[in-house]
Design brief:
The complex is a heterodimer of chains A (531) and B (986). With 531 residues, chain A is mainly alpha-helical. Chain A is built from 20 helices and seven strands. In chain A, the strands form three sheets. Chain A has a two-stranded antiparallel sheet with strand order 2-6. In chain A, strands 3-4 form a two-stranded antiparallel ribbon. A two-stranded antiparallel sheet of chain A has the order 5-7. Chain B is mainly beta and 986 residues long. Chain B contains eleven helices and 58 strands. In chain B, the strands form 14 sheets. Chain B has a 22-stranded antiparallel beta barrel. In chain B, strands 10-15-16-13-14 form a five-stranded mixed sheet. The N terminus of chain B is likely disordered. Classes of the chains: A mainly alpha (531), B mainly beta (986). Chains A and B meet through helix 1, strand 1, helix 2, helix 3 and helix 5 of A and strand 30, strand 31, strand 32, strand 36 and strand 37 of B. Strand 1 of chain A pairs antiparallel with strand 36 of chain B, so a sheet runs across the interface.
């Protein structure tokens, strides 16, 4: 009997213990993560999130090169979701500056000017831009005065966070400019919208223009003065540079030209103590983060600490083949990817494209003519970006593929060109003399002598000068559209619209389609015309 | 004995007291003997006058005597475990009766969730496979034991590698993104799906020789008691237990040889040479193709595969000590893969004790099992490299890459060597210079206490405590000179993790037969607690010389993903008059994967069973020995296979290689995770109608089932509006999938005599699954969610349908490169012309097993067939001229497929490569000789010879038509295995 009682007691106790191990065990938390309250409990925590605000356009994920935080369905190569890589594909492969040899229908449709809304590379850019917008919104939400009140941070930290917040607003404005330029009427979300089951509203291009303009003007006072911020972070000059770029293209976006404003803001940057680097090629080398007096804002990459198979790694590796000597010469001993090269329109824009005259002409192997779009050796390869230091040494790379070169998002030369073009187009406030001066500054730097200087130029010359100066930096599509030459048959290049000698295409290709998965999930969006 | 004596007394009593009465009514006495088919007497068998209470029992010799009132009565002869026989005596005064034995299946007790039931009374769709029906031969992983044995259960091994896992599907998959794996419960302990590092398959740590039976629960009536984890079906594994009595020692040993069945059909060295020669002056890099040709004739597949030997030895002792039944077992398996360098060694052991205490009131079952797997994993890349590597090159050469031939260039000036990064690697070097070794230890077990209350013996309390712990660790070593890791200067990377899973369950069961209302009530109520914790270690990447690769140092040294499930469940089975059974169950589960608001899910089921053969009209039927109708409906849930914290909005710091430069400092990014605060259970409603049947004393038996499964709130990763979360896609509850199907199973013993027995079993299952909704909003233009690069989930189609262009052919039937049908008729061939063509899931799955015995010899075989399944032959898509004919400075071989299609650049999305992969396979053919007791009647000896993977009949042109997922990317070939086995029993 005794044994029996002990047993019954054991049973009863066990049940009590079991039921007592109650439901609080269901509140499991990840070991290596913070709740939002904890993340924003220190100034350092704010800076970590600021790193993500920037990292959203400099990296593909927080967990290495193999993952991507935008998770676009259908994409398997994380590197293709990188901002610069995706932006570059849309801005350059659709033009005379670049052609890709990779046998991928989605990529080939860029030269062929026949992409559809299911193109995953278009979705990659769209998703990347809106991802950065979303991260910016989160940061802006969490750094409002109300949220900061009562945290007891020192005044200096509060001042820093005020700058961070303005930078997040700048980057958001930058991405809205990208979306406005490429997609026309994207969805519009701000810090006032929630995270979760929310369907953003569509904004019209004109309204978005006004928003970006207003935002940039509003944050001007909260950004750090030109050249006073940490490397890699935006300052006032970056805000002005974006305004200048915005105004130069205002007529495309709104139907109303704003050249005077373009002159005003490019002048503000030009007056801020930036100078052209003496050697053009140094702008695109591995140590271009050191002593760079020309760049206003760069996206920083590092072969060890900021790894990315997009960005400049993509620009450099995909423009080289597997020739050992060539690979070593450009700092990628791990070998090239046999992807991008130029159509002949680009080298021929220099006339003498040997690089002996205008040193900005940087081409190497390949043929001028392109027999097959899929053969990498057809078309001159472009060596503008390299992973070699200005002293000729090659920086460390763990695998000889990842590079250390930073990408210039805004640089002084572009501001000269904005001033030049806006003035040429009759914008108030600029002088022809100053414009000619800037024009020759660029050419003199390119030739490293006065041999290329001019005494006058036409508007077409401005477009050509922009190409010679800014090729492969992601400007070409926007420029061709502004000059009415993107889809029209008035300006042709090899394989434009998939035809060897080039052909025109329907005008609706001037704006990209909203990606089809987005049209499904966001019922507020109307597809762009023609798609 | 007591009962029998009482019966005898009763008979005497009846005979003496009532005999005069009958005599006076012209009564007759009938006598005879009751035996079974083998002529053995059946003491205690009963004989009864139909429609009256008059009856008698057979004596110890099976002899009976009964007095009947008239010749016209019907006598009913019966004995438990035997069919009932009715006979009109007529003028016979002596009636010798033979009763047919019911098949074992009829009385078999099967495990159901939280308890057992007699098979004939089971209410759900349940199939049991016990040890005698398992697949035979060298089986290293338990699930392979039941391949082809049960209708609606498909088991597809992932590869031919030793210990490789399998994909198990019961009635197709219910989910798109969450797990489709069934819940596996070993001795009442549910296994978690946690991945153990260094084990290709966590089930490979369970020794198949320790398994007594598998029970597969298919419909909701059977599975709903497992609630949230049961949407994909449940597999209950019962391990072998001790039996009381003298110790029985069982020793079995097997030796086997595995051989490659079929090589990929590559271009021969001679043909390759001819082809490259024909290219004339073509140039790659800066050399002519011709110049690159070597002088060797290498069959790279011969170089990487070998005949692999394996041994499997198992020893068990079972018996009882001091009335405690025990079973102790040990096993040692050593199996080489046919891919050179591939090896698995498993040491396993187990103890089970089943004491009964407190005057039979407390039954205890204790099981402790463990295994240590020592593996060396071969570098699987060798398989595709062997297809592509130039056959004119030798295996060995004077190179800086360990003396293996590789594609590389030497700088004429400096003599420095550059490997051609894009070329295929030497397949033999890939194997020999790659040392991926692991040690995995796992132990699992449970203690189950079943207590029958002293004051109320109908009430049981059952407590089950279980654990499952494992530790896996391994290292990949590649020397710095090896071409496969040349850019990183070799590697010696470590990996490792631990799992620690706990289970606690308690239930009360009340089982009472209430004769007054002719009813039985069986009620169960219980509680369960399940906790799955992994500890995953992060390691930096280390070069062969011991240097850490910069940027690879992990931010966190370990992570501890954990999930917990708490359940309350109840079940009531009401049986009226042993004929009508109404069962209902309900389970409430709380999952740590969901927020406090959504985490609790309730999963009910109801089932009705009508044992038709118990009705009067059939009770004495000679034809029907069993006939049962089952109807059920139930809801089950799914939350497995997804991330542990999908509802939490949290921040985590980025890796050290993913940092952002501000000034001259790199910052780890504070990264917000995408989340769905409202994420909840995926739910599957299942309707099932089934019939269990048995004819001729159950010599023919089986079942037919029809089901309809509808899954809603699919845990599905879908695109979400950009800007609304920290990702473009999110795991949320959207979409519906429907599965419907029919299953048929028949087991028969056409011949059963003293010398001959012939058993046949056949099963067939038809399943059709269709996606009926995928998005939160309705839009007919949405093509669907791409899976990989060639498949898509689209509304109105099977999951993972192939999404391809429709290839056009010339007059001679050859595909024309780049020419596709304009499916949408808009005049342009673009992505809009992709169409959905077939899917990887078979429409019909068939299984056939048979065994024929003559005296001590028996021969048996298992065949399986899948019909209507398609495969994308992704190996063939690489058969391109541009691969041989590339500009990358090397030559590459390809499949002879190129002689058919002749594609130059390739047609990655052409339906040309989607092939019918229906197949018929003979899994197993065995000849066994049971020598009986030898060596002075002391040792039972059984010898067997076995061939596995005997043949495959298919139209599919790749190596093997059976690849789960439907994309053929150089599968590790399943070998043909020849096995010799000896089993000794002392």
């Amino acid at each position: 009997m005794k044994q029996k009682n002990i047993f019954t007691t054991t049973i009863v106790l066990s049940v009590a213990v079991l039921l007592g191990a109650c439901t609080k065990d269901l509140d499991r938390k990840p070991l290596n993560s913070n709740t939002s309250e904890l993340q924003y409990s220190t100034p350092a925590g704010y800076k970590q999130v600021l790193a993500k605000v920037y990292g959203s356009y400099s990296l593909v994920s927080s967990t290495g090169v193999g993952n991507f935080d935008v998770n676009v369905a259908g994409i398997t190569d994380a590197g293709t979701t990188d901002f610069i890589r995706a932006y570059w594909n849309l801005q350059e492969l659709t033009t005379d500056e670049a052609l890709c040899a990779w046998n991928d229908v989605n990529l080939q449709s860029f030269h062929n000017l026949n992409w559809t809304s299911s193109n995953i590379f278009i979705n990659a850019l769209y998703a990347r831009s809106l991802f950065q917008v979303t991260v910016c919104n989160e940061f802006i939400r969490e750094s409002s005065d109300e949220k900061l009140a009562g945290k007891g941070f020192p005044a200096a930290d509060l001042e820093d966070i005020k700058h961070y917040r303005a930078e997040a607003r700048f980057l958001r404005a930058f991405q809205y400019w990208v979306l406005m330029d490429l997609f026309g009427n994207p969805p519009f979300v701000t810090e006032n919208d929630p995270i979760g089951k929310y369907i953003p509203k569509q904004i019209q291009r004109k309204d978005l223009f006004n928003y970006v303009e207003a935002e940039l003007k509003e944050i001007d006072g909260s950004l750090v003065s030109p050249k006073q911020n940490e490397y890699g972070r935006a300052d006032q000059a970056a805000g002005w540079a974006l305004l200048a770029r915005l105004y130069l293209n205002a007529e495309v976006y709104t139907g109303t030209a704003r050249y005077a404003d373009a002159i005003t803001y490019s002048s503000k940057v030009i007056g801020s103590n930036y100078t052209l680097l003496p050697h053009f090629k140094n702008l695109f080398m591995a140590d271009n983060n050191v002593g760079n007096t020309e760049n206003i804002l760069s996206i920083a990459y590092d072969a060890t600490n900021a790894q990315n198979y997009g960005g400049t790694t993509f620009l450099i590796c995909s423009s080289h083949g597997t020739n050992v000597d060539d690979n070593k010469k450009y700092g990628i001993p791990g070998g090239g990817w046999l992807g991008n090269r130029s159509t002949k329109s680009l080298p021929l824009a220099f006339g003498d494209y040997s690089g002996n005259a205008d040193k900005r002409a940087m081409f190497s192997s390949g043929t001028l003519e392109i027999a097959s779009a899929l053969n990498f050796n057809d078309g001159l390869s472009v060596t503008k970006f390299s992973n070699v230091n200005s002293d000729g040494t090659t920086p460390y790379s763990p695998n000889g593929v990842l590079v250390n070169t930073d990408f210039p998002l805004f640089r002084l030369a572009e501001m000269y060109l904005v001033y030049i073009e806006a003035t040429k187009r009759g914008g108030a406030g600029g002088t022809a003399a100053a414009a000619l001066g800037y024009f020759n500054k660029l050419r003199q730097r390119g030739y490293e002598s006065t041999a290329g200087n001019v005494t006058s130029y036409t508007l077409d010359d401005v477009l050509n000068e922009r190409q010679r100066e800014l090729y492969w930096e992601g400007f070409r599509r926007t420029d061709l559209i502004r000059f009415g030459r993107f889809t029209s048959a008035t300006y042709l290049w090899p394989w434009k619209a998939g035809v060897a000698q080039g052909a025109g295409a329907d005008a609706h290709y001037s704006i990209f389609p909203i990606p089809s998965p987005e049209i499904i999930s966001n019922t507020n969006l109307a597809q762009n015309p023609g798609y | 004995m007591k009962v029998k004596s009482l019966l005898l007394i009763a008979i005497f009593y009846l005979a003496f007291v009532f005999a005069p009465a009958y005599l006076s009514a012209q009564s007759t006495t009938i006598t005879g003997q009751i035996t079974n088919e083998k002529g053995e007497q059946l003491p205690g068998a009963s004989v009864q006058v139909k429609g009256s209470t008059k009856g008698a029992s057979a004596d110890l010799n099976g002899k009976y005597s009964i007095t009947i009132p008239s010749k016209d009565v019907v006598l009913v002869f019966s004995n438990s475990g035997y069919t009932v026989k009715e006979i009109k005596p007529g003028n016979d005064m002596v009636l010798n009766i033979q009763l047919a034995q019911l098949s074992e299946a009829m009385n078999e007790v099967v495990v159901i969730g939280y308890g057992t039931a007699r098979k004939r009374e089971v209410t759900g769709s349940i199939a049991t496979v016990s040890a005698k029906d398992f697949q035979q031969g060298t089986i290293t992983t338990p699930e392979q034991l039941i391949a082809g044995k049960v209708a609606g259960v498909s088991v597809t091994s992932n590869s031919g590698s030793p210990g490789a896992g399998s994909v198990i599907r019961i009635r197709g998959g219910a989910s798109l993104n969450a797990s489709n794996d069934p819940l596996i419960v070993v001795d009442g302990v549910p296994l978690s799906g946690n991945n153990i590092y260094g084990a290709s398959n966590s089930l490979s740590l369970i020794n198949p020789n320790d398994i007594a039976s598998f029970t597969i629960l298919k419909d909701a009536a059977a599975t709903a008691i497992y609630g949230s984890r049961a949407s994909n079906g449940v597999i209950l594994i019962v391990t072998k237990k001790g039996k009381s009595g003298k110790p029985v020692i069982n020793f079995s040993t097997q030796v086997s040889a595995s051989k490659l069945v079929k090589k990929a059909d590559v271009v021969s060295a001679a043909d390759f040479r001819k082809y490259v020669d024909s290219l004339g002056t073509g140039v790659t890099g800066n050399r002519a193709f011709k110049e690159l040709l070597g002088d060797a004739n290498t069959d790279w597949q011969d170089e990487i595969y070998k005949t692999a030997i394996a041994t499997d030895n198992n020893l068990s002792i079972s018996g009882s000590v001091k009335n405690i039944p025990y079973r102790v077992s040990v096993g040692y398996l050593n199996q080489d893969g046919i891919l050179r360098t591939d090896n698995l060694q498993r040491f396993s052991g187990g103890i089970s004790l089943s004491p009964v205490l407190l005057d039979n009131h407390l039954k205890i079952d204790i099981n402790v099992r463990g295994a240590i797997n020592n593996s060396r994993f071969a570098n699987g890349n060798a398989i595709s490299s062997a297809v592509y590597f130039d056959p004119t090159q030798p295996v060995r050469a004077n190179t800086p890459f360990g003396g293996y031939y590789e594609w590389y260039a030497v700088d004429a000036g400096t003599g420095s060597v550059t490997l051609n990064k894009l070329a295929p690697r030497n397949p033999v070097a890939l194997l020999n210079l790659f040392h991926n070794t692991s040690i995995v230890k796992r132990s699992y077990g449970n203690a189950q206490l079943d207590y029958k209350f002293h004051f109320l013996p109908d009430l049981h309390a059952n407590l089950n405590l279980g654990y499952d712990v494992a530790k896996g660790e391994g290292e990949i070593k590649v020397p710095a000179y090896a071409a496969q890791n040349y850019l990183d200067s070799g590697q010696q990377n470590k990996y490792g993790n631990k799992i620690n899973n706990k289970v606690a369950e308690f239930y009360l069961n009340y089982n009472k037969t209430i004769t007054a209302i002719n009813s039985n009530i069986n009620a169960t109520a219980g509680y369960g607690y399940y906790d799955n914790l992994s500890t995953n270690y992060n390691f930096p990447n280390i070069r062969a010389n011991g240097d850490t690769i910069p940027g690879s140092k992990p931010k966190y040294l370990l992570d501890k993903p954990q999930n917990t499930l708490i359940s309350y469940y109840g079940r009531l089975i009401y049986t009226y008059n042993t004929k009508y059974i109404l069962a209902a169950s309900i389970r409430t589960d709380g999952s740590s994967r969901f927020s406090p608001i959504t985490r609790w899910g309730t999963f009910p089921s109801v089932a009705f069973t009508w044992r038709i053969n118990q009705e009067k009209m059939l009770l004495n039927s000679k034809t029907f020995s069993d006939l049962k109708l089952r109807l059920s409906y139930g809801v089950t849930g799914n939350q497995d296979g997804i991330y542990n914290y999908p509802y939490l909005g949290v921040y985590s710091l980025s890796d050290n290689a993913s940092r952002v430069l501000f000034g001259d400092t790199y910052y780890n990014m504070g990264t917000p995770a995408a989340y769905d605060a409202g994420i909840r259970w995926e739910q599957t409603s299942t309707y099932n109608a089934g019939i269990d049947y048995g004819f001729l004393g159950n010599r023919i038996n089986g079942s037919i089932d029809m089901y309809f499964k509808k899954t809603k709130d699919l845990l599905n990763t879908i695109p979400i509006p950009a800007g609304s979360n920290f990702s473009s896609t999110i795991l949320t509850n959207v979409g519906n999938v429907e599965n419907k199907g029919v299953e048929f199973q028949v087991n028969a013993t056409p011949v059963r005599t003293k010398r001959y027995t012939w058993d046949v079993s056949f099963n067939a299952a038809y399943n059709d699954s269709k996606i009926t909704n995928l998005t939160a909003t309705k839009d007919s233009t949405y093509p669907g969610t791409l899976i990989g690069s060639i498949q898509i989930n689209s509304v109105g189609y099977s999951p993972s349908a192939f999404y391809v262009y429709h290839q056009q052919y010339n007059k001679s039937g050859q595909p024309i490169e780049g020419v596709y049908a304009d499916v949408n008729g808009d005049g342009i061939i673009n992505q809009r012309d992709l169409y959905r063509y077939q899917s990887p899931a078979p429409k019909f799955v068939l299984g056939f097993s048979t065994q024929f015995s003559i005296d001590k010899w028996s021969v048996s075989t298992v065949l399986r067939a899948n019909l209507g399944n398609y495969m994308f032959n992704n190996l063939a898509t690489g058969a391109l001229q541009s691969n041989i004919f590339n500009s990358l400075g090397y030559l590459a071989n390809t499949l002879t497929e190129i002689q058919k299609s002749g594609f130059y650049y390739g047609q990655q999305s052409s339906d040309y490569f989607v092939q019918n992969a229906s197949f018929l396979k003979m899994d197993n053919l065995q000849l066994a000789y049971n020598a009986g007791k030898l060596f002075g009647d002391k040792v039972g000896v059984r010898i067997s010879a076995n061939c596995q993977n005997v043949f495959t009949v298919t139209k599919y042109t790749g190596i093997d038509p059976e690849i789960y997922g439907g994309v053929d990317n150089a599968l590790y070939p399943r070998p043909r295995i020849y096995v010799l086995g000896v089993n000794l029993q002392f």
